[in-house]
Design brief:
mainly beta; 21-stranded mixed beta barrel; 3% helix
Length: 307
């Protein structure tokens, strides 16, 4: 197994079983992905929450013209026009965007030039109406057994957030920390250890300044069945330990079902099926098993079309 890219990914196998592909969290979710013969890519996403307004986004990407890419995107909050220049020979990528909130955003990326496995990002944004500036510098360093990331916010604080994951023969060790330069104080810190192979993975994490402890386990029982469990204890909230267990069963090559339940008696079921080429349907429901007569249950559906 490869080393996780980020500290938060150390427990990813169990987290995916417990959280991914459960469709009851939104009433309806629609995603349409299409690519025209001339190379224009068109993506539409819409989401209807159980409570609150409907949100959506639209993006259009024109075909690459040499090193240049141009696109437009519309979200719930703003429209955005974006242009990108990429030079693969030098590892340089320049992205410039302008939104309807009148924000000019620039991102410069340089990969494998300063050092092998090192990617540097410089991000800036300018709000002409407010005469306000923002700037960030991010560094990503990847080696076969080590992933290291740093994020610097130059105008807020300044602050620095760092995380690292080290792996060897399935064993994993990770840590993350935050530091405020102006306050000269550590703002957060977390640590984790784990063991991960293709068939199973176990992780112990201490997050929120080592105040929230969790242990998770993932097991690929066979080619059809996967299972996962997670226990969480918040030392500041009391002595209660939260527990979740989940399983996934592959019904056939085009469909699967999932189920999970937690210590509070909240159960969830999900079903995913590929109806035809490029068409996927997901159905989900959650139930409060201790209050079946009350209207606390949720049902959701997801449709994805690709063409």
């Amino acid at each position: 197994m490869s080393v996780p890219v980020a500290f938060s990914d150390i427990g990813k196998p169990a987290n995916d079983i417990l959280n991914k592909d459960f469709y009851h969290t939104t009433a309806a979710n629609l995603e349409v992905k299409s690519k025209a013969p001339n190379g224009v890519t068109f993506n539409v996403k819409g989401k209807s929450a159980h409570e609150g307004p409907i949100s959506g986004s639209v993006s259009t990407i024109l075909p690459r013209m040499g090193p240049f890419t141009v696109g437009a995107r519309r979200t719930k909050y703003y429209d955005q026009l974006e242009g990108k220049y990429q030079d693969k020979a030098t590892g340089l990528t320049l992205t410039q965007s302008w939104t309807t909130s009148n924000s000019l955003d620039t991102k410069v990326e340089l990969e494998d030039q300063l050092a092998k496995g090192l990617k540097a990002e410089v991000l800036s944004n300018y709000l002409p109406a407010k005469q306000a500036y923002g700037g960030k510098v991010n560094l990503y360093y990847k080696q076969p057994n080590l992933h290291f990331r740093t994020f610097f916010d130059l105008f807020k604080g300044p602050t620095a957030n760092i995380d690292a994951v080290l792996g060897h023969e399935g064993f994993l060790v990770g840590a993350e920390a935050g530091y405020d330069v102006q306050k000269a104080a550590v703002t957060k810190y977390s640590a984790a250890i784990g063991y991960s192979l293709r068939q199973y993975a176990a992780t112990i994490q201490a997050t929120n300044n080592l105040s929230v402890f969790s242990a998770s386990y993932y097991h690929a029982v066979n080619s059809e069945v996967e299972a996962g469990a997670k226990a969480t204890w918040d030392s500041k909230a009391g002595n209660n330990v939260g527990l979740e267990i989940a399983s996934k069963y592959k019904l056939d090559p085009s469909s699967f079902a999932k189920a999970k339940i937690n210590d509070r008696g909240i159960a969830a079921l999900a079903y995913n099926v590929k109806l035809s080429t490029g068409v996927t349907l997901g159905l989900g429901a959650s139930f409060d098993t201790q209050n079946l007569s009350q209207a606390a249950h949720k049902v959701g559906a997801s449709f994805t079309f690709e063409g």
